[in-house]
Specification:
The structure holds 2 protein chains of 2 kinds.
Chain A (H helix, E strand, L loop, with lengths): L2 H11 L1 H29 L9 H30 L2 H5 L2 H5 L6 H29 L16 H21 L3 H26 L11 H30 L4
Chain B lengths: L10 E10 L2 E11 L4 E5 L6 H8 L7 E6 L2 E2 L4 H7 E4 L11 H11 L5 H11 L12 H13 L5 E5 L7 H14 L6 E5 L3 H7 L2 E6 L2 E7 H7 L1 E7 L12 E7 L2 E6 L4 H9 L3 E8 L2 H20 L3
Parallel strand pairs in B: 3-8, 3-9, 6-7, 7-8
Antiparallel strand pairs in B: 1-2, 1-4, 4-5, 9-10, 11-13, 11-14, 12-13
Helix pairs in contact in B: 4-5, 4-6, 5-6
The chains are: A mainly alpha, B alpha/beta.
Chain lengths: 242, 311
């Protein structure tokens, strides 16, 4: 079997999700710059101009970058949640599994497509982040000040848990929601555990709450993500039924 | 790793069992289908036909027993089985967004033994348009496409799971012609499950009747039809005699008429019936496949009711 055919099949099967991911990725930039352009059209004839156009431009870019990156978590959940259950729900997996294909081969096709889409999302957003400090005379802090590690870990745990649910439950909606809920549950879990373990009247994490919360969040996510991914993959490979 | 045996049976199952929770779908099924034969698997809804075929295709896990297809153990090497078997399911789940040509290209990339000339021959025979999307095909055309995809890689065994259900008589006829031309005439093995008994009779040389996961009988169709007869007797006072001949699979009394369906019929059995108390006269008649199937199933149901004490 030509892997190209499998990749093509995955692309065609998930093309609407990919289009939605592209819209989510580019939408904030387009909306931001569209609004800026409109503002220019309205106010420039009235001689109302900001003191530093470059700064305004970069602030819009920073905000669009943040929105795009944050909203892309939804795209990642959609990709992970539909990866396995998307084919099961319309039963086209029965056709696929009547072909002499090894599960691992099909899995590679699915992961390759997911990796490609996620890479495009991250490359574009990271490129914008990389570009920002290079702007001469820029007064705003670099876009790296965004909680990149936080979003990256959340993306990872969302994809892996959505993948896990997708291998378990034949309902893409449930799987996507499951993926999106997981980081929230991790955050709630950490806060609840902190509240339980902190003696009455004491300050949680010895006063350095935000930094310690983030550190624990990253640690827990980094454990949950590979576990979910491995269980999901194992289940997919072991299951005889389509 | 199982070693395929080139001259062994095409399908062989040993105490094959499938359980869905508490429901026993297939119960210790032992079946043997010789190579080159066309086997009709008959049974009412929920008898376990589709479950059996899916297990043979390696698309359903096996709870107990073993299934060997073309000498390969399905549980250990399902990919090898799928490479050598063609499968036409009852409901077709070919990607609906694919065009006919794309579906052919996709399947072709999966099978190293794909035969382009056979594929083109079938495209012409079925009148399929390669540019048309699968979702725009009628049910009959989807079934034909499914058959085309199943036989173009020249499988040694073709599994047809209720392929004729929901098709109009013309589409059924065209489908059967396709099967006869492309598979049966080339000496490949076919396993067809269907409710359309006339169509099964046209294709199959051997049949098996499955009921509640159990194989009630298996044998050559002509020999089964030749040896299973219906004896119709007239009763003097309408009271059914207590004794019935050996091999009775079903009996029914309507007024003074007593009908019994007997396996392994012989003239002696007819004499036995005639000699019974209260029987005025008795005649034997041939059975069609449909009557044979119905009487086997009714007989089993009656037995079950009697066993459970409901009557």
């Amino acid at each position: 079997m030509n892997t190209g055919w499998l990749l093509w099949k995955e692309y065609r099967q998930n093309r609407f999700i990919i289009y939605a991911a592209l819209a989510i990725l580019l939408g904030p930039y387009l909306i931001g710059f569209g609004a800026l352009y409109g503002w220019r059209l309205i106010y420039c004839p009235m001689n109302v101009t900001p003191r530093n156009w470059a700064e305004v431009w970069w602030r819009v870019l920073a905000f669009a970058n943040f929105c795009s990156m944050f909203l892309s978590l939804l795209s990642i959940a959609l990709i992970g949640g539909n990866a396995i259950s998307g084919e099961r729900v319309d039963r086209s997996s029965e056709f696929l599994f009547s072909m002499p294909l090894r599960r691992s081969r099909i899995l590679v096709g699915k992961l390759l497509l997911a990796a490609l889409v996620i890479a495009v999302i991250w490359l574009l957003n990271d490129f914008v982040c990389w570009l920002s400090p290079k702007m001469p005379g820029l007064k705003v802090p670099g876009l790296r000040s965004l909680p990149l590690a936080f979003i990256a870990t959340s993306s990872l745990v969302i994809f892996c848990s959505a993948w896990f649910f997708s291998s378990l439950v034949t309902s893409p909606a449930f799987d996507v929601c499951g993926g999106l809920m997981t980081p929230m549950l991790v955050g709630i879990g950490i806060r609840f555990t902190t509240w339980l373990l902190t003696p009455h009247g004491a300050v949680p994490f010895a006063g350095n709450y935000d930094a310690d919360f983030s550190r624990w969040y990253l640690r827990v996510c980094c454990v949950i993500a590979p576990v979910c991914f491995c269980i999901g993959t194992w289940r997919y490979l072991r299951r005889v039924e389509p | 790793m199982s070693i395929p045996t080139p001259n062994g049976p095409a399908v062989e199952t040993f105490w094959l069992t499938k359980r869905f929770g508490r429901t026993l779908a297939v119960d210790n099924l032992s079946l043997k289908i010789p190579r080159g034969s066309t086997f009709g698997l008959l049974g009412p809804n929920g008898a376990g036909k589709s479950t059996t075929i899916k297990m043979l295709m390696g698309m359903l896990s096996i709870t107990g027993g073993q299934a060997r297809v073309l000498g390969v153990d399905v549980a250990t090497d399902p990919v090898q089985v799928k490479r050598r078997v063609g499968y036409v399911p009852e409901a077709h789940h070919i990607y609906r967004w694919m065009r006919v040509g794309e579906a052919i290209g996709f399947c072709k990339s999966c099978f190293p033994t794909w035969n382009d000339s056979r594929c083109r021959e079938l495209l012409d025979l079925f009148g399929l348009d390669v540019q048309k999307k699968v979702k725009h095909l009628s049910k009959g055309m989807q079934t034909k496409l499914s058959l085309l995809l199943a036989v173009s890689h020249e499988p040694e065994l073709l599994l047809l799971d209720e392929p004729l259900s929901g098709l109009d008589p013309v589409a059924r006829e065209e489908f059967l012609d396709g099967v006869l031309q492309t598979v049966c005439d080339r000496g490949q093995t076919v396993l067809i499950s269907s409710h359309m008994l006339d169509d099964v009779r046209r294709l199959a040389d051997t049949v098996g009747i499955l009921y509640e996961g159990k194989l009630l009988l298996q044998g050559h169709l002509e020999s089964l039809l030749g040896t299973t007869k219906r004896i119709t007797a007239t009763l003097r006072d309408g009271v059914r005699p207590a004794n019935v001949p050996d091999g009775t699979i079903f009996q029914r009394t309507v007024g003074r008429e007593w009908t019994i369906t007997v396996r392994d019929f012989s003239p002696e059995k007819l004499q036995q019936v005639r000699a019974l108390d209260g029987v005025e006269n008795a005649v034997a008649a041939d059975l069609g496949l449909e009557d044979l199937f119905k009487d086997f199933i009714r007989g089993c149901r009656t037995e079950k009711v009697l066993e459970s004490g409901s009557v």
